[in-house]
From TrEMBL:
SUPFAM superfamilies: S-adenosyl-L-methionine-dependent methyltransferases
GO BP terms in the entry: endoplasmic reticulum to Golgi vesicle-mediated transport; endosomal transport
Matches recorded under Pfam families: Methyltransf_21
Organism expressing this protein natively: Artemia franciscana
Protein name: Methyltransferase FkbM domain-containing protein
Domain of life: Eukaryota
Keyword NAD appears in the UniProt entry: no
Transmembrane domains' residue ranges: 7-25
Keywords carried by this UniProt record: Membrane, Transmembrane, Transmembrane helix
Entry GO terms, CC: endoplasmic reticulum membrane; Golgi apparatus; late endosome membrane; plasma membrane
InterPro entries listed in its UniProt record: EGF_Rcpt_Signaling_Reg (IPR053202), FkbM_mtfrase (IPR006342), SAM-dependent_MTases_sf (IPR029063)
Gene3D superfamilies: Vaccinia Virus protein VP39
Amino acid sequence: MEYQIKVVLVFALLSFFGIFIYFSINESGSEAFRSKTEERPSELFGPSVELHNPFIITRLRNELMHLPSENGYQLSQSDHLYDPSMGQSKAILKALDYKTRGFFIECGALDGETRSNTLYMERSLNWSGILIEGDPKNFELLKKKNRRAYSFPVCLSPFPYPEILLFEQQFNIGKITDTAKSNTVQVECYPLSYILLAVNQTSIDYFSLDVEGNELKVLKNVPWDNVDIKTLSVEFVHDKEGKVAIREYMESVGYDLIDEISRDDMLANDFIFLKR
């Protein structure tokens, strides 16, 4: 009997140390991972990063990507015919002959509802897609809307590589900035191709781009030969290189300017492009 008690005690001690070691290893692994991200190592961010590094794609897919919601919408408007866009979605749908079951990307997705260019397509025409929003506060609001789309709390990079950049939080006019302020946060930014690889999607019916000033830089990092983007709406009013530069660049990669959506209240200043 005494021998059995000793065996049980030894087994219990071994189990305790095994559990302790397991959690120590996992915690140290978590700390190492956090340290990697915080220190901006060359293998994750910066000019020296390997193009389409598999680890980065896997991390986007498993750590940053939020799956389409299976819960009911939580929107301010219950009417499924409600279109909160400022005219962009109507112009795009006209160009696409009111296509159903399309696929979109909306970068600058805000809270997922306010002036959304893709919400009507998703709710009324059974589209799916990707929502990209770099402002952490806005992204928390977006998640609560229960959109039927993949969503990423990141920015599209103005560089051909992933980078951590400062983001100025100002709800609908938030943007990447070079100046640290009380309302700036660090945000991970990825070229569009990395996001598309994470969701395994290369055919896009509509790309809505509104990033308050870096539109042309983002567009120049799109792998046009490897993706099929049929239409785009591109905000031009804040871009540092000007609207003419955006139009000329898009024409050079095979797109025609078919419309311009502008409003006196400045809630829309977008080019509408259609692939030739």
